[in-house]
Amino acid sequence: MITERQKEKARIFSTMHKEDKMFVLPNAWDAGSAYIFEKQGFQAVATSSAGMAYDLGYPDGENICFDDLLYAVRKIAKRIDIPLSVDFERGYGKTVCEVKENAKKLLMAGAVGFNIEDGLPDGTLNPLDQQLDKIKGLCQLKQELDIDFVINARTCAYWLNVAGEEEKLQMAIERGNAFAEAGADCVFVPGAMDKTTVEKLTAGIKAPINIILNGVFHDYAQLEELGVRRLSLGSGPVRYIYGQTISLANHLYNGEIDEMLNSPFVYAEANAYFKK
């Protein structure tokens, strides 16, 4: 059941995309990480498809089933009070009806936003007309359920490096504008890109722009000045944490235990932190 409180969260999340400033959206992989992001002051949280896959021991790319995603979203939504957006990948369905039904289940679980992407497993992009049908289907769902959730339409032109620089840019702008015209609230163009590319994207796409934190260009102030409205952290946090976990496992295997035993995050402090 969709509550008035959930509708209010959707309105809050929608408004965040319309303000004349950028917000940073951390990507969680389970209820604990989402809880931490909220407790440390973030105003909304999103899931990471990669993070959820790693959490279950799989690589990224719809290797987990929809029921796994739904279960995790329920657990996260139950534990946090801020808006929750879900990385919906390709919608976990081949038809618009399947995508809508899956989105409906995630909304009933507490989501107030979705990423829907056009990247395919073979490294190409979904035909534009088919992607627009998915977006239009989600727009219909907004009306049917009377909740203004955020549709964050993602093009993987840069992420999958589908063409040369100029062609990629034009493809991203063309698709981004088509997504917006179909009803998307925000356009997501992930990938490692320089300042000039970001500037061209924000100038060319007539919608709020979401990019992903990357090592090429990541100055918060400059990104905001260029018009980026949403900065996703992507799989960066979960990869950092799991990298630390792999290092810890190697240390433990070799009998190197001092660093873990001397952690300042002691048992009592951990229990206190996670107590609401």
UniProtKB/TrEMBL annotation:
The keyword Lyase applies. It comes from the Bacteria. It comes from Emergencia timonensis. The keyword Ubl conjugation does not apply. This is Isocitrate lyase/phosphoenolpyruvate mutase family protein. PANTHER family: CARBOXYPHOSPHONOENOLPYRUVATE PHOSPHONOMUTASE-LIKE PROTEIN (AFU_ORTHOLOGUE AFUA_5G07230), PHOSPHOENOLPYRUVATE CARBOXYLASE. GO terms for molecular function: lyase activity. Keywords: Lyase, Pyruvate. InterPro entries: ICL/PEPM, Pyrv/PenolPyrv_kinase-like_dom, Pyrv_kinase-like_dom_sf.
